[in-house]
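Standup notes, structure subgroup. Blocker cleared on the heme C input:
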Amino acid sequence: MGKTTWLGAVAGVCLLGAVVALVSRPLEGRPVTEREAAVDSQVLWGRQLVISHACGDCHGGQNNPEAKGWLAGRMDTLQDFRVGPFITRPRNITPDNTTGIGRFSERQIFNALRFGLRPGETPDVEITGNTPGVGNFPEIPKYLAIPMPWPSWRHMSDDELWAIAAYLKRGVKPVVNKVQDSDGPPDFWASEYTEEKIGKYPAAPYPTANEQ
Ligand code: HEC
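Run returned:
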């Protein structure tokens, strides 16, 4: 074998190795399937984040995308929450157009996770401030009901939140399940979501008095 052929063979083997490594890169502790390799990686990343961030604990299916009712919202009174005098209900976050999040844009879902703004009552725009009245953050915000844990998840990166939005809109099959609206106070929970109660976004610089 001539020198150039040798080099070609070595390069070929390396390339093949790289492709195999990419396709069989472990995902959730197992190799990637062929179908997964063909899917937009943003959707798969969003799926991993949804599974690992307890979305299904409230929205249905726990952490199992094979479960009946995966992300389809409250189906039983057992999934209701009592918050003071109010009953709140995890919504259908599958992309059904009438009963789920199908009619919302990925940006509206992003805004729900980053700012807690109800996608049904917040325009499809980039939000430029972090507190009511700053930038175009609504002066009288309509927040998602407790206990939707957006005050924690807003600290995920932009890319992570976009990936979750991509998975919900494009990776999940629509399920028709009408969830009754949550009850809530007239201020749409604004007095529960002050900086004193939920901390700053972005979080205070490290280290705070609790950290070393
Ligand atoms: C502890 C329970 C709980 C968990 C965990 C949870 N949610 Fe929610 N979520 C709710 C409740 C309750 C509502 C309804 C709020 C309302 O009615 O105002 C809601 C509403 C939403 C909405 C708004 C839907 C709409 O139509 O207005 C989105 C989007 C959403 N959740 C996404 C998520 C995602 C993504 C995760 C995981 C990262 C998640 N939720 C985890 C309780 C939860």
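Discussed briefly. Residues 50, 53-55, 57-59, 81, 88-91, 93, 101, 109, 112-113, 118-120, 144-145, 147-149, 153, 164, 182 surround heme C (CB under 6 Å).
Next: hand off to the docking folks.
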